[in-house]
Design goal:
It comes from Streptomyces mutomycini. InterPro entries: CitT-rel, MatC_N. Keywords: Membrane, Transmembrane, Transmembrane helix. About 70% of the residues lie in helices and about 0% in strands. The longest helix is centred in the C-terminal third of the chain and has 28 residues, at about 390-415. The chain is mostly helical. It has a domain at about 75-210 and about 275-415. Helix 4 (about 55-70) packs antiparallel against helix 14 and helix 8 runs antiparallel to helix 10 (about 175-195).
Length: about 425
């Protein structure tokens, strides 16, 4: 058996073990990088760590640190409550409010599971109280998170664009963002119609603070106090610093988080512990293993194998389905970190548009996160109060299966076949 095939089989084993045994995929990937690098490829420690993504490590830590502070001091709760008041209690608009909020959070740097974890409990409580389908509300939250998930300063966007930059492939940050946003917006619209969203227009929620979902709010919870105002300003500064001044997102976020912590240490003390360390471990581990694959030539070998199918469009469709199926049962971040580098040699052949292919892969690997086996789907399932969880689980599973079956082919047809990029 060739070393390249062994390294691919080990990668498959990493995904399988992480899915079935609930072991962090990044930790498994670090162990796999050590085993394959030392025993199969003959690499030393420097060779194994050559692929460690130091830049992405800083981005992940920085933005999740800042959002942990925002959650600890009530800024994210204030944003959600303010948005609900903004629509004047119109029930039909509330699912779209949740879509926009989660999309905005991920677009400016929140990790998708973190955004879903923030919004889903409030959204699902509101759904139960006002007779909104939990599946509708849960899908709106997840697709909102994925809709904003590929902005130039987001975690997903940073990962994908960083990989393209390192591989010297042409990319289009705005096209990637808009493709994901359009796909998730379209899916959300279909779900809204199919699961009773139009009927909600006849209902209206009372515009009182004590009518808000969930437990009673603490005194002053709706007030924009100094820590929350400073946090909102920091989020705005992050957007301007990255998009306008072209500063590093991770270093900027860490700096802003430290400034807030220094002024208000009481509300920020637990933020470091709330950094998305499992996600950081996952990303760094998977990309370090991918670095080992690159060092030993597996990436080129696998890409040439996909390209050797002889029908580039068929190979592209196959990659989209691989991304969707694996992501439905594991981490979208992990599969993108592994799958896109595997597609690089195939894309370098020039027969498939890079921009369209990367966008199709990104959409295929993330829209399936409503599956109850994925992190976001599991968060939605766990956040739903007073519902038949077995029934809700089956609904999410069926819906996730439909998305896996339909979206990769649609993304391939719209983004790959025309040859964008």
């Amino acid at each position: 058996m060739s070393p390249e095939l062994i390294s691919i089989l080990v990668l498959v084993a990493v995904f399988a073990i992480a899915t079935t045994r609930s072991v962090n995929m990044g930790a498994l990937a670090f162990a796999a990088a050590f085993a394959v690098g030392e025993l199969v490829a003959g690499l030393d420690a420097d060779g194994i760590f050559a692929g460690f993504p130091g830049d992405l490590f800083v981005v992940l830590v920085g933005v999740t640190y800042l959002f942990a502070i925002a959650r600890a001091n009530g800024t994210t709760d204030w944003l959600v409550q303010a948005s609900i008041r903004l629509v004047g209690g119109r029930i039909a608009l509330i699912p779209w409010v949740m879509f926009v909020i989660t999309g905005a959070l991920t677009a400016i740097g929140a990790v998708s599971p973190a955004a879903v974890a923030i919004v889903a409990p409030i959204a699902l409580s509101f759904a139960v109280r006002h007779g909104i389908s939990p599946l509708l509300m849960g899908a709106m939250v997840v697709h909102g998170a994925q809709g904003g998930g590929f902005s130039p300063i987001s975690i997903y966007g940073s990962i994908v664009n960083g990989i393209l930059e390192r591989e010297n492939l042409p990319g289009n940050e705005i096209a990637l963002f808009l493709a994901s946003l359009a796909a998730n917006l379209l899916i959300a619209g279909v779900v809204f119609v199919l699961f009773g969203g139009l009927k909600l227009a006849r209902h209206r929620a009372a515009e009182r603070d004590d009518d808000s979902p969930g437990p009673p709010a603490e005194e002053g919870s709706a007030r924009l106090d100094a820590p929350r105002a400073a946090t909102l300003l920091s989020l705005l500064v992050l957007v301007v610093a990255v998009l306008v001044l072209d500063l590093d997102a991770g270093l900027t976020a860490i700096t802003l988080a430290v400034l807030i912590s220094a002024v208000w240490p009481d509300t920020s003390r637990k933020a470091v512990g709330a950094i998305a360390w499992p996600t950081v471990l996952l990303i760094c581990g998977v990309l370090t293993y991918v670095g080992v694959l690159e060092e030993m030539g597996t990436i080129t070998w696998a890409g040439e194998g996909v390209g050797g199918i002889g029908v580039p469009l068929l190979a592209a469709l196959l990659l989209c389905y691989i991304g969707a199926i694996v992501s439905a049962f594991a981490s979208s971040v992990g599969i993108m970190g592994a799958l896109i580098p595997l597609a690089v040699p195939f894309l370098a052949l020039g027969e498939i548009g890079v921009v369209g292919m990367i966008a199709a892969l990104a959409v295929s690997a993330t829209v399936v996160d409503v599956s109850p086996f994925s992190t976001n789907g599991a968060l939605v399932l766990a956040a739903a109060p007073d519902v038949d969880r077995e029934r809700f689980f089956r609904q999410l599973m069926v819906y996730g299966g439909v998305v896996v079956a339909v979206v990769p082919a649609a993304a391939w047809l719209v983004l790959v076949v025309p040859g964008f990029g």
